[in-house]
Amino acid sequence: MTTPLLRLTGVSKSFLGTHALQDISLEVDAGKVLCLLGDNGAGKSTLIKIMSGFHKPTTGTVEINGEPVTFESPRDASDQGIATVHQFGGTFPLMGVGRCFFVGAEPTKGWGPFKLFDKKVAGDIAVREMQSLGITRVTDGNRLVGSLSGGERQALAIARAVYFGANVLILDEPTAALGVKEAAHVLRIIMQARAKGVAVILVTHNVRHAMMVGDHFAVLIRGQKADDFRKGERTREEITDLMAGGEAMADLEAELAQLQADA
Amino acid sequence: MTTLPRTTAQKETAVAPPKQSESPLGQLRHRPEAGALIGTVSVFVFFAIFGGEKFLATGGAASWLNIAAELGIIAIPVGLLMIAGELDVSVGSVLAGSSMTLAIVSGYWGAPMIVGILCALGLGVLTGLLNGLIVTRTNVPSLVVTLATLSGLAGLTLGLSRVTTGTTSVPISPDPLSKALFGHLIAGQFEVAIFWWLGIAVCVTVLLQMMKYGNWIFAIGGDKESARATGIPVNRVKIALYVASGFGAALVGVIQTILYNGAQVANGQSFVFNSIIAVVIGGVLLTGGYGSVFGVVLGTLTFAIVNQGIYYTGWNSDWASLILGILILTAVLMNNTFRRLALSYKPRSAKKA
């Protein structure tokens, strides 16, 4: 068994005495997709923020390739190859594709204080990298990001992360705001990133999407890991029930049936 | 990697892959500055018709170019700040403060001109630094912070001027060199400030469009958190922009003082809103993330033409503000439309064959 790319051991996080996360242990391997499932408020966002360096865990350790690490800032995490792709892509609508792709890491030409931003190279690379993820409709590096579809924006953000050496890619609800076709596109891009050897952490509450691409699943409920299983070990109904809180769901169903009967 | 020389070569090679060849006018439709350009051209044509020959004569041109130059030197850095998502309304007091500093140091106390000029510009830089530090450290909205410095510095200028000189208006007799550099009237009509304005416009265009710092400014205005996550030193960039804005306002203070051979405490307050008007007419997004120096220059020209053009029409100049108000609203609506057009623009040929 090889050491996992990213490992969390007994991670907890409290904010002002409230336990947002309790004793979470997770592993992600290169070239695999880990799906983090959970209802709203289950602690998914807090967990991502710990992995991407926005928060420090109250207790517990984070290891990369078996080495314990402490992230002081998001910059530390991205230096270690952990990239977060925010909901809606975290991109800039009024910037060109090339400009957006290289924000903070602009290629330059020339010398000394007169180094110029090489927009031609930036645009070409951005277009090339997006095409390698199967986005063929973007051919102009000056195209404004705001004119791209939701799926294309996700592709831009993912292409960017992979290009800048991300080996752990955290996707926060990448399909939430998308239509069926666009979502399918994003799932295809996830599989393409996986094929490139990237470890993907897909955060979602869409069980269907998760089951289509996931190799490994973890379900969070109220800040705790409720279940942890591999592909094919659970049915969709079992997962949905678990996410919604099992018994609570059964109670709700009974109550609704009662209301229906009364009407 | 085979990279071709930019601009012209780029356009020529673009013909090779399937790409529609649009007329330059059609291309312009997809540029968000299109609205600003239409605005400038329309007000020019409007006043050319109603203002007649006098508006078109050199005297007329000088009157609005002079206004535009002084406003433009302030509007460009204020525009940069707005692109980065921040406001600076303290420019009015910086202008007054730097004017008085120069007049008191070199006029009242009789120090060499260069000392006074450096003190005046230093005041602008310091105020900018203070604004920048407070805005980035406290997260108080920049409008409030700079309103505070606007008011505070105005009070300080008035108080200190009265304490040191006993008056609110100080004369100065600039030496020929500083007169030539800052306060000369070319052909007896055109302020030398026009060249300062154009020089600054060219430098800032290069910075914004062709250097990585420009990309940083756009990114900060577009999404501050994402920009920070990519490693851009957001706070340092903002502080630098406030310093630039303070410097611009102080430079205009120096120019006015030398041009008019004196300074008054109440100078410059009109620049507070006029700079924002010029920037907004110029198509800069008030909430940040979009804008261009070319747009700001056009916005400044539009403002100046309306501001001066009214005198050539023979109408009562009371109406100038009304025209300006209508203009601002029209310009902003038009800019929004053009921005939407630019955002919905998808090259047709890019569709899969």
UniProtKB/TrEMBL annotation, chain A:
At the top level of its lineage, which domain of life is listed? Answer: Bacteria
Database matches in PROSITE patterns:
ABC_TRANSPORTER_1, ABC_TRANSPORTER_2
- What are the entry keywords? ATP-binding, Nucleotide-binding
One Pfam annotation reads: ABC_tran
Q: Which PANTHER family match?
A: CARBOHYDRATE TRANSPORT ATP-BINDING PROTEIN MG119-RELATED, SUGAR ABC TRANSPORTER ATP-BINDING PROTEIN
- Alphabetical list of InterPro entries matching this protein: AAA+_ATPase (IPR003593), ABC_carbohydrate_import_ATPase (IPR050107), ABC_transporter-like_ATP-bd (IPR003439), ABC_transporter-like_CS (IPR017871), P-loop_NTPase (IPR027417)
Q: Which residues form the ABC transporter domain?
A: 6-247
What is the native source organism of this protein? Answer: Streptomyces phaeofaciens
GO MF annotation, one: ATP binding
- What name does the UniProt record give this protein? Sugar ABC transporter ATP-binding protein
TrEMBL record, chain B:
Functionally, this protein is described as follows: Part of the binding-protein-dependent transport system for D-xylose. Probably responsible for the translocation of the substrate across the membrane.
Per the record, membrane topology reads:
Multi-pass membrane protein
InterPro entries, per this entry? ABC_transp_permease (IPR001851)
Source species, domain of life: Bacteria
| Entry protein name | Xylose transport system permease protein XylH
Cell compartments where the protein resides: Cell membrane
Where do the TM regions start and end?
34-52, 64-84, 91-109, 115-135, 142-161, 181-208, 239-260, 266-286, 293-313, 319-338
What keywords would UniProt list here?
Cell inner membrane, Cell membrane, Membrane, Sugar transport, Transmembrane, Transmembrane helix, Transport
Residue ranges with Polar residues bias: 1-11
Does the keyword field hold Transmembrane?
A: yes
> Chief location of this protein?
membrane
Any one GO CC term of this protein is: plasma membrane
Which terms in the Gene Ontology molecular function aspect does this entry carry? transmembrane transporter activity
Organism of derivation = Streptomyces phaeofaciens
Q: Where is this region: Disordered?
A: 1-26
